[in-house]
UniProtKB/TrEMBL annotation:
InterPro entries: MdtP/NodT-like (IPR010131), OMP_efflux (IPR003423). This is TolC family protein. Keywords: Signal. The lineage of its organism: Bacteria, Pseudomonadati, Pseudomonadota, Gammaproteobacteria, Lysobacterales. Pfam families: OEP (PF02321). It comes from Coralloluteibacterium thermophilum. The keyword Signal applies.
């Protein structure tokens, strides 16, 4: 677990400036807007545009599945026969009036095939909605961690400037005493200016990282600080979804939908059957009679062969995607677990390196002020300390990335439980 460092300490003329790595902003910031915690942002996932879009797509698919259950509408027809002819059929006096109702019957499993296909599409849309939700959570985790890392790097740059200025003052004192050449003082001042430029650069990176976090999280006001650390959180593989990862379930649902569409296209090649019931009124005798009939289409010219071939091709494509997804997910899961374990080890090693670099720099300061080591050795120890602290931040970013990859495979938010 990462241990935040303390504030600068001064003892016996030695000063080791240490800023808390977990501190999100410089101490001279008087009023800052703090971002909600990562857990609070995850709780608001449903309000983000990508999640809203995925929910709307699922709602549309669910509505189509409900609509697929509807029976086809009947049609009504009105006709008059034996009118405007010759002889007794001149005009409409002896015309026969027929009123009939036609109802498509949807035989041969046409309706059930349509319903099952729509349900499969809705199921696939539901799984894609869940997948999008965890993708958005992963994007939030990465943006949050990058903003926190940028703030820490800014603090480290400020700390490096403080240490460099402190060393430069020590060199200047030795130059005045004649213990160091004037060139050393010029070099020390050059290092101060370089550290100041690095501080300005990290400030710009920090501000842009917080701007991205404010935009992606849809925050009402821009933020400049992190309320709760995400870089210091650890996560262990839960094993959730190891046998049935979310990405594989999505691919399987898409294959099921494609298979159902094959059935739909095959049913479309069968004849359409309609039943008709009508009543005819004979004007001449004022009698009435009922008519009953069936209408059957003949699949002579259009047998939907192209549609069937297209559906089978889409099914084969879905099968190939499923096979590829299974292989890819298996490899990605092993890689994510290995990367997460390695990043945990890397983080522990980086923290140990920071402690060792701090002690080395402290001893170098003592030796430099006592005249036992050179400015170059002190500069090397300071550079090693700064590099070690930056390496600790890099290790935590790598751990967050590994956790994001693993969480998406397991179907959960990073650093959270599956749902």
């Amino acid at each position: 677990m990462f241990t935040p460092l303390g504030r600068p300490l001064i003892a016996v003329g030695l000063a080791v400036a240490v800023l808390a790595l977990a501190s999100p902003s410089m101490a001279n910031d008087t009023v800052v807007e703090t971002a909600p915690s990562y857990d609070d942002l995850v709780a608001r996932l449903d309000a983000l545009p990508s999640t809203l879009e995925a929910n709307a797509v699922y709602d549309a698919a669910a509505a189509r599945a409900e609509q697929a259950r509807a029976l086809p509408n009947p049609s009504i027809a009105y006709s008059r026969e034996n009118v405007y002819g010759t002889g007794p059929y001149n005009g409409t006096g002896n015309g026969e009036t027929t009123l009939s109702i036609n109802q498509p019957l949807e035989l041969f499993g046409q309706r059930s095939a349509r319903i099952q296909a729509a349900r499969s599409e809705a199921n696939a849309a539901d799984l894609r909605r869940v997948q999008t939700r965890w993708q958005v959570a992963g994007q939030l985790a990465l943006t949050y961690a990058e903003a926190e890392a940028a703030a820490r790097r800014y603090d480290l740059a400020a700390e490096a400037l403080s240490l460099t200025e402190q060393d430069a003052r020590g060199v200047a004192a030795m130059v005045e005493q004649g213990r160091e050449a004037t060139l050393r003082g010029v070099q020390a001042q050059s290092e101060v200016e370089a550290a100041r430029a690095a501080l300005d650069e990290t400030k710009a990176l920090r501000d842009s990282a917080f701007a991205r976090l404010s935009a992606i999280a849809m925050l009402e006001r821009p933020v400049q600080a992190i309320s709760a650390s995400l870089l210091d959180r650890t996560s262990n593989p839960t094993g959730v979804g190891a046998d049935d990862p979310l990405a594989v379930r999505v691919a399987q649902a898409e294959l099921d939908a494609a298979s159902r569409l094959v059935t739909v296209e095959r049913r479309r090649a069968l004849p359409d059957v309609s039943a008709a019931v009508g009543r005819t009124r004979f004007r001449e005798t004022n009698d009435e009679a009922f008519t009953v009939g069936l209408e059957l289409t003949i699949p002579l010219f259009d047998r939907n062969r192209g549609g069937i071939r297209a559906a089978y091709a889409e099914q084969r494509a879905a099968e190939a995607r499923l096979i590829a997804q299974k292989q890819e997910v298996r490899a990605e899961r092993l890689a994510a677990e290995a990367t997460l374990a390695a990043s945990n080890s890397r983080t522990r090693a980086a923290d140990s390196g920071v402690a060792a670099a701090e002690e080395a720099y402290r001893l170098s300061r003592i030796g430099f002020e006592a005249g036992r080591i050179s400015q170059l050795e002190l500069r090397s120890a300071r550079a090693a300390l700064i590099a070690a602290r930056n390496a600790a931040v890099d290790a935590r970013i790598a751990r967050v990335l590994a956790e994001i990859d693993l969480a998406l495979l397991e179907g959960r938010a990073p650093f959270g439980e599956s749902r």
